[in-house]
Amino acid sequence: HLFFLFCAYVFFLLIDLIFKNKYLALLGFLFLVMHPHIYPHSFFNTKDIPFLSFFILSFYAKEKAFRNPSYWHFILLGILTAILCNLRIIGFILVLIILFFLIINIIKNLREKTQLIKKFLYFNAYLLSIIITYYIVTPYLWDDPINRFIEIYKNMSQFRWGGYVIIFREIFNADEIPLYFVPAYMSITTPIMIMISGIAGVFLIFKWIKKDIFQIFTIDKYRPYLTYLGCFLGPILAIILLRPVLYDSWRQFFFIYPAFILLGIYFIHHLIENYSLKKVSYIFNILIIINLLYISFYMIKNHPIQHVYYNKIVPHTPEHIRKSFEQDYWGVSFRQSLEYICENDSRDTLLIYGDNYGVFINHFLLDEKDTKRIVFTKDIDKAYYFIGNYRFHRDDYNFDPSKIYYKKIINNSSVFIIYKLK
């Protein structure tokens, strides 16, 4: 969590470096830390959040290296992107973009011998540092680097998970996910004003590309935005081509979110800088602030399970979200349910039947005296309480409604429920 917050600060520095505007930098920082679906993951998601965070560090190192070129800057960039690729091999999308712009720099300086040699050396410094670092931090490659790298690449699209996911009330096997899965989940779990600004930024960049598709890649001021466009759309294209196994929601693709924010900040910057759009800029920024205030209230009120957030694109009618989308698939809410039972039942022994393994893991987070009181049973007839979080169970549980002891409702849908059986 602290590492995520540190990288969020680096994100602030990155935006300020690009736009020279503290307001936009603060806005980008808030877009990151006030995403109600992503921020809570920084407490418990040890895979997707570090990967997102290293994308931010790599973005910042890239901007420093290209704006103030030196061997050390490109070596540092190589080290960071190597660790990024070690975390997940799809990080090579950023590596390919960096190599592309380094080659463009070499081509632009073909007639200036001194600059050409410098650009060529920078290219080599980056390439060597990433190869060496990636080899060092990936021991799996040591015995057979080439074949095992190919194996890692294949493993990315054929990862083994036999579960299933749900979206719009439709259930899919993890290896048969529809193409709209990630874009749809991103759209309905991201605050609406952030989505609008990001999508507008994408269209704005395409507008510049359309003007001069060949020249734009050689203009330095467009390089950051083209990078972020590639890091946002490239992984989505990879889903279409590779059809990988995907887990719940869009958590495996959280790493595209910083690039998406930067595209949105570019759009807001365009509104602010364009004199004819000043009134539009004021209105748009006021709407963003109102949206962020609402999100902050929601996140504080529903901590630590604010990650079940869905925006108003989807109906918030009773139990619609619970039956149509993923909710607390991490089982974080089990701690709250166990604490509620322990606070309201003074018996020395509490026999509990849990809906899934998450409830067992969470009981270790309680006070030691409460942990000792809780005993899990596999016999529902012996249990005093049943706890469920609707994981792989979209319908109502088959118990007498009069036995409902407590349930947590967010967005008009039940997140977890406790039945008092005895």
Structural write-up:
The chain has 16 helices and seven strands. The two termini are 39 Å apart. Helix 4 (71-87) packs parallel to helix 6 and helix 10 (223-242) runs antiparallel to helix 11 (257-273). The chain has 422 residues and is an alpha/beta fold. The longest helix has 25 residues, at 113-137. The strands form two sheets. A five-stranded mixed beta sheet has the order 4-3-5-7-6. Strands 1-2 form a two-stranded antiparallel sheet. The radius of gyration is 24 Å and the shape is globular.
Would you summarize the structure shown here?
The protein is α/β, with parallel strands linked by helices and 422 residues long. Helix content is 57%, strand content 8%.
Counting DSSP E segments of at least 2 residues, the number of strands comes to 7
Strand order of the largest sheet: 4-3-5-7-6
Radius of gyration: 24 Å
* Overall geometric form: globular
Task: Tell me the fraction of residues in β-strands, as a range.
Answer: 5-15%
Structural class: alpha/beta
Order of helices and strands: HHHHHHHEEHHHHHHHEHHEEEE
As residue ranges, the low-confidence spans are: none
Q: What is the distance, rounded to the nearest whole angstrom, between the alpha carbons of the first and last residues?
A: 39 Å
What descriptors fit this protein?
422 residues; 5-stranded mixed sheet; alpha/beta; globular; 7 strands; single chain; 57% helix
List the helices and strands and how they pair.
Elements: H1 2-19, H2 22-33, H3 48-67, H4 71-87, H5 92-108, H6 113-137, H7 145-157, E1 164-167, E2 170-173, H8 181-189, H9 192-211, H10 223-242, H11 257-273, H12 278-302, H13 320-324, H14 333-344, E3 350-354, H15 358-362, H16 368-373, E4 374-376, E5 385-388, E6 404-410, E7 413-420
Helix pairs in contact: 1-2, 1-3, 2-11, 3-4, 4-6, 5-6, 5-10, 9-11, 10-11, 11-12
